[in-house]
Amino acid sequence: MSNSGLSAGDAQLMNAVAEAEAESARHGQDLTPGQWAKKNLFDGVLNSIFTLVFGSIALVTIWFGARWFIDSDWEIVRANLRLFMVGQFPRDDLFRLWVSGYIVVFMGGFVAGAMAHNAQDLADMQGVEYERATWGSLLRRFWTIIAIIIFFVSFARTALPYIGVAGGMVLAVGSRELGWRAPAAVRARSVYIGAALFIISMMVLAGTSRLGGFALGAVALAWVASETGKRDLPGGGAGMVQRWAPAILVAVVVFVVTVLLPYDGYGWEDWGGLHITLFTTVFGIGMGMPIGILLALGRRSDLPVLKTASVIFIEFIRGVPLISLLLFSNLMLPLFLPGDRPADLTLAVIVITGFSAAYIAEIVRGGLQAVPKGQTEAAQASGMSAGAVQRLIVLPQALRAVIPAMVGQFISLFKDTSLLSIIGILEFLRVSDVANAQPDFVGKGLAPVTYVFVALGYAAFAYTLSKESRRLETRLGVGVR
After folding, report:
1. Rounded-to-integer distance, Cα 42 and Cα 46, Å
2. Average pLDDT of each block of 10 consecutive residues along the chain (481 residues)?
3. Which of 95, 232, 338, 424 has its CA 20 to 30 A from that of 348?
């Protein structure tokens, strides 16, 4: 087609589009390593100088780092591996950790597989192409976690940790496939199944308690509430079975675990190592997220009392460092609680949850302000209630916009758990000092070895969180109009 029938502006636009497509095609061509290096590293004098300088620095750093890594005495890590991983958890009760860990692995794999299939069903319904994640892509996504687990296990002196980790990986693969192949009715309720399994895993680890029974009961009630409001369920007996069978199943599990199989577990006041670091992070994020969203909504509320209370809480928590809040939890918070003094970790988790919630609230508030007001007005004009507007229109867009800041807060909280040592909790970093103070290693200058070991653990988990955040941003088109 000739450009003679087009205006000058249209012709320029078509030429620009053609040039952009040609440039995109050129970028999409497969390049040999030499071509890639010439294009990206040596395409000019200045770029070549930077490549040579920083490449030399990187090579020297890697050389000396590798020599130090090989020549260092890692016996202190090998002798204290269990202390680094689980603190002073009794050897006779280690089976609780394995059983609880397997339940969590099964939960994660099952929920991931079910949600992936749900996403494919939604994409098919909307006519959007969906590409299922392959095992190769999953390996590339989580290679840092897998590598750090293998690195940690390599210091074990017995075969049990190797067998246990291998079994966990097989279980993760199998549970994900099971979640993918589960019936649609089960996949639609995978979140509730995961919540119930997580609570059961904690009860296996810490023992049965009324708190665990209440938590499982709350999951059952939330399950029933969600099913009752669904209109896509069939009527009659089939609909009743789908609504009530899951709740009855959870109730039976509560009865069996808390009544028929009572036993004393190993309470979290004596947990330690990497285990307590990960648990505190997950608990702080899991509890802080909903509270933070409620605080953000409360701060934007038109009710003066609710808005004032939210503002006071958020600004007070954000105005003091976490270390002072932890000291407050240890010295002052027990005075405001009834009954006997709770465990130090219980007090710390309360404060960490509030700390996380305050920062999440401000992040979410920024996302709420980014949602155009016209969308809220249009939803209200269509007859939607205020709660439905926030839940279906505003919050999904707000949370999508603040994914980078939210994940940054999660990573910061993960690293801030190292401050638990201030109140005497044996977290991951604190174990390094304890190991170096042992008679067999005191005065040998092995602190750099243990600190590097701990740093690699923090870096692996933080990098994975950051990488998953970028992947989620890309899938949701954050920053793309």
Report:
1. 9
2. 45 49 49 80 86 92 91 91 90 86 91 89 80 82 91 90 92 92 82 79 70 59 56 51 60 62 66 90 89 91 90 92 90 82 86 93 90 84 82 85 88 92 90 92 90 94 89 71 53
3. 95
Q: Helix axis angle, 94-126 relative to 190-206, nearest 10°?
A: 170
Q: Which helix (H) or strand (E) holds 331?
A: helix 322-331
- Token couple for 264: 């004393």
φ/ψ of 264, rounded to 5, equals: -95, 125
The fold of 73-89+270-481 is MetI-like fold (1.10.3720)
Residue-range domain boundaries for the chain? 73-89+270-481
DSSP labels, 333-375:
GGGGSSSSPPPHHHHHHHHHHHHHHHHHHHHHHHHHHHS-HHH
Alpha helices of 155-263 — where are they, by DSSP H?
A: 160-181, 184-187, 190-206, 210-228, 236-255
Give the 3-state secondary structure of residue 207.
strand
Residues near 327 by Cβ (< 8 Å), separated by ≥ 6? 422, 423
| Residue whose entry in the numeric block shows the structure tokens 């990187």 | 58
Burial (Cβ within 10 Å: 0-12, 13-18, ≥19) of residue 364? buried
Q: Cα 34 to the chain's mean position, in Å?
A: 39
* CA gap 297, 370 in Å, rounded: 14
pTM above 0.85, yes or no: no
CB atoms within 10 A of CB 89: 21
The CA-atom distances, in angstroms, between 139 and each of 146, 236, 464 are 8, 45, 12
Structural tokens at position 90: 């009794």
Looking at residue 258, its amino acid is T
pLDDT tens, residue by residue, 131-171: 777 888 888 888 999 999 999 999 998 888 999 999 999 99
String of DSSP letters for 298-326? HHT-S-HHHHHHHHHHHHHHHTS-HHHHH
Q: What is the dihedral of CA 453, 459, 462, 464, to 10 degrees?
A: -100
Q: Which long-range contacts (CB under 8 A, 24 or more apart) does 160-163 make?
A: none
Helices (H), 129-159: 135-141, 143-153
Angle between helices 304-318 and 344-370 (to 10 degrees): 120
Which spans in 6-72 are helix H?
8-28, 33-40, 45-71
Q: How far is CA 387 from the centre of its chain?
A: 27
Least Cα distance to 344 among 367, 327, 365, 362 occurs for 327
Q: Which tokens go with 470?
A: 């970028």
* pLDDT at site 1: 43
Residue with tokens 């071509």: 35
The answer to whether the beta carbons of residues 144 and 463 sit under 8 Å apart is yes
Q: Strand, helix or coil at 371?
A: coil
